[in-house]
Amino acid sequence: MINETHDPNLRSWVESANDPNTDFPIQNLPFCMFFRNNVERPRESIGAVIGDSLIDVEQIIKLGLLDEFFPEADRVSYEPYFHFASLNYLAGMLCANRIKLRDGLIYLLREGADNETIAAVRPNLTSLADVTFKLPAFIRDYTDFYCSIYHATNVGSMFRPDNPLMPNYKYVPIGYHGRASSIVVSGTDIKRPYGQNRSDAEKPPVFIPAKNLDYEMELGFFVGRGNELGTPIPIGEVEEHIFGVCLVNDWSARDIQAWEYQPLGPFLAKNFATTISPYVVTMEALAPFRTPAFERDADDPQPLDYLNDPQNQKFGGLDINLEVYIQTEKMRNEKIEPHRLSRSNTKDLYWTIGQMLTHHASNGCNLQTGDLMATGTVSGKEKDERGCLLERTWRGTEPLELPSGEQRRFLEDGDEIIMKGFCEREGFRRIGLGECRGRILPAE
Ligand code: MN
Q1: Listed residue (341, 250, 367, 347) closest to 295, CA to CA
Q2: Torsion of CA 396, 402, 406, 409, to 10 degrees
């Protein structure tokens, strides 16, 4: 899987892509959906991000600039209906063909491209500052897992100190069906939801704006080609069905959740909004950052056969650093930089994303191109690796001190949560997932 497109010495004639701190060097090239600001008739198009700009992939293909690498015959998608109208079109391709597209884009953008090529490509570059991002895919279904054993243990121990993990945890990648319609792209404001609160066990519940509003730092991944109803996805083939990853903030109202979650799990505490980053970092770009699956304790059970595959055990994990920052209204007014609340890593997930997908389809459930899956809150062992406020402030009992002198148990109106993700490994170029932002507006 690792090839010359991952060569750390590869540079681009787009100078900003060579900045060692950029999330988007030529080795990354995440895809997005965008339209240009300040044009008369904005048109949505597929973009590939390079440095501080993006290239209009649809235009580049129409101009014939990719014909040599990515011939028309290979542009067949499982989702022809979408064509260039969404990333579902690219997601629905055979991985082998998407790799040809990647190779072609890198050929056009690399340092050393001839002047004629550069002259033809340059007019199709737009600064990221001059575009508006749309949701990257048409997401028909969204499923959220619960795959960080540290998160599950922490949350479990708040409610069941003696027995934090349920007996199914080490056998089943636990998840619930989320809601696709309320997924929004980074930068969208989030209105504080109303809901039933029963914090006083002596009285009936009241319908008020949520008090214990929280974020959850998660990794999202998009289904590439789907599977037919009744036909599971074998673990050995699952990587063929994963398109790429994004950042996910699974906003959660803990007071609503505490009252409603039994016996069927999360509902209105979660489905009022989920924010995702606009960029899909492809599995091709992530190849250098694959790791072994989570190393289980000696007395833990091995995954059941349908979730156990030697390749997946060796390379199914992901080494992605995740960071959460907060900037309150006071911090913004006083020009105080966002403050980091946590950093964690997807290496700490108990299940690989391949195991999650295979499990999801193991009963014959049909996954569709563009479906969004999320890992669940990614937490690590340490306190500053806890990926949500519920854990970080231990249900609000250990408030966090902010550089503005403020305290936080849960989110206040005006707070902005900023999530970041990046991969670093000796011998490879750093790549990033960009940012996922959202600000809390007061309830109406
Ligand atoms: Mn979640």
Answers
A1: 347
A2: -10
Burial 277-289 (b: 16+ CB within 10 A, else e): bbbbbbbbbbbbb
Q: For residue 103, report the distance from its CA to the centre of ligand 1, in Å.
A: 35
> CA 17, CA 27: separation in Å to the nearest integer?
9
For residue 160, CA distances in Å to 93, 164, 174, 381 come to 46, 5, 18, 19
Distance 280 CA to ligand 1 centre (A): 19
The count of other CB atoms within 10 Å of the CB of residue 119 is 10
Q: Domains for the chain: give ranges and CATH numbers.
A: 4-134 (2.30.30.230), 142-441 (3.90.850.10)
Q: E-assigned strands of 128-263? A: 131-134, 142-145, 175-177, 183-185, 190-191, 194-197, 206-209, 213-214, 217-223, 242-249, 252-253
- The CA 2 to ligand 1 mean position distance, Å, reads 32
pLDDT at 84 over 90: no
Cα-to-centroid distance, 367 and ligand 1 (Å): 19
Q: pTM for the complete prediction?
A: 0.98
218 alpha carbon to ligand 1 midpoint, in Å?
A: 7
Cα distance between residue 442 and residue 47, in whole Å = 34
CA distance 153 to 169: 10
Which of 13, 97, 21, 27 minimizes the C-alpha distance to 287? 27
Catalytic residue among 6, 83, 151, 241: 151
Higher pLDDT, 259 or 82: 259
Tokens for 302? 């091995």
151 is known as an active-site residue: yes
Q: What are the tens digits of pLDDT across the range 89-128?
A: 999 999 999 999 999 999 999 999 999 999 999 999 999 9
Q: pLDDT, tens digit, for every residue of 394-415?
A: 999 999 999 999 999 999 999 9
Alpha-carbon distance of 375 to 354, in angstroms, equals 11
Q: What whole-number distance in Å separates Cα of residue 177 and Cα of residue 260?
A: 16
Q: Residue 104 belongs to what H/E stretch?
A: helix 95-109
Does residue 130 contact residue 359 with C-beta atoms inside 8 Å? no
The single residue listed with the structure tokens 């999530």 is 419
